[in-house]
Amino acid sequence: MSVNITVVGSICLDFGIMLPHLPVVGETVLGTDLITPVGGKGFNQALQAHRLGSRTHFFGRLGDDAPGRMIIDQLENEDFPVRGLRVLKNEKTALGLILIGPDGRNMIGGFSGANMNFNIEDIDQNVYDALLLSTHLILQLEIPDEVNLAVLRLAKEQYVRTILNFAPYRNIPEEIENLIDIFIFNEIEASAYFEREIRTHEDFFRIRDSKKYLFEKIYIVTLGEKGAAIIAPEGEYYSEGIAVDSIDSTGAGDSFVGAYVHFIASGRGYIQSIDLANIVAAESTTKPGAMPGMPGAARIETLIREHNIDPDEPDE
Ligand code: RIB
Q1: Rounded to the nearest whole angstrom, what is the distance from the C-alpha of residue 73 to the centroid of ligand 1?
Q2: Does residue 280 lie in a domain region?
Q3: 315 located within any domain
Q4: What is the chain's mean pLDDT, rounded?
Q5: How far is the CA of 165 from the centre of ligand 1 (A)?
Q6: What CATH number does the domain containing 90 carry?
């Protein structure tokens, strides 16, 4: 039986250029390829959960322009549910400008456009109905705080579990933090939030002595090729990095978030969900672009066998 997950957040058209090396300030580097997949952290996370088999309810905003039409064309081929997409008149669609180096690392400059014109009137009956069906809600920080807050209040009324991907990092109102059950950061975001350097899982496990740490919440950090770590009331766990031939790491964190929530919503334990999400995120880096690289359920079944993971083994 498929699980229901609501995602409210950003959607962009990404322009990814493959480069022989990342430029320094003032330098021009000519690329070898250009890709234009749909992106945006909210959309990427929803798409990964959808590809793994979740019934995903995504709410996002587009402008009525050429990039917006390119997004809709691509989604029609993807079989991705578009009911929650609204096209705003006289608004520009958000864009992601992504420079990808030869080792798969990237630099992203984003234009927010319609994403930041999401407003609280958009948290309407359709969102309410989606939350009624859902066990989990995923949010990020590419839309306004008041929208995230409005949807969080609704989610809490429905006892929906709430996940915030703290990306891109900014200070947010305390009320939002209080309504979140699971925080997911990358190293940069975790370092900014806990106001200390977090580069390894050992650094991360020390956040327990931070004033920001709360016992009842779950904290996860993704560490790029070094894997991911979790601190939960049940315990802490480090999932080592998975070696792959990485071509483009764009959206690997989003792939991790969508996969992790898919697996916990499907009833898997916190350790296994991290291990599986880690495999999904690593695999997502083996093709250029976030959307093209995100694996589906069949591919993950094969990888689970290759990695000798027993998908039915409960957490200790
Ligand atoms: O996390 C990757 C995403 O960040 C890209 O798809 C880009 O659109 C930006 O939002």
Answers
A1: 19
A2: yes
A3: no
A4: 95
A5: 12
A6: 3.40.1190.20
Q: Check if 290 has its Cβ closer than 6 Å to any atom of ligand 1.
A: yes
Q: Looking at residues 15-40, what average pLDDT do you find?
A: 96
The 8-class DSSP code of residue 113 comes to G
Torsion of CA 244, 247, 252, 258, to 10 degrees: -80
Ligand 1: centre distance to CA 157 (Å): 30
Whether residue 259 lies inside any domain: the answer is yes
* Residue 312 predicted with pLDDT over 70: no
Tell me the per-residue pLDDT of 44-70, one tens digit each, with 9 for 90 and over.
999 999 999 999 999 999 999 999 999
40 lines ligand 1 (CB under 6 A): yes
Bond preceding residue 292 cis, omega within 30 of 0: no
pTM of the model: 0.96
- Total number of domains in the chain: 1
Atom 2 of ligand 1: nearest residue by CA position? 251
Q: How far apart are CA 217 and CA 157, in angstroms?
A: 18
Q: Which of 111, 254, 287, 294 to mutate to test the pocket of ligand 1 (most atoms within 8 A of CB)?
A: 254
pLDDT tens readout for residues 265-310: 999 999 999 999 999 999 999 999 999 999 999 999 998 888 777 7
Q: Is the CB of 251 under 6 A from ligand 1?
A: yes
33 found inside a domain? yes
Tell me the one-letter amino acid at 94.
A
Using CB atoms within 10 Å of the CB of residue 304, give its burial: 0 to 12 exposed, 13 to 18 middle, 19+ buried.
middle
Rounded CA separation 96/3 (Å): 30
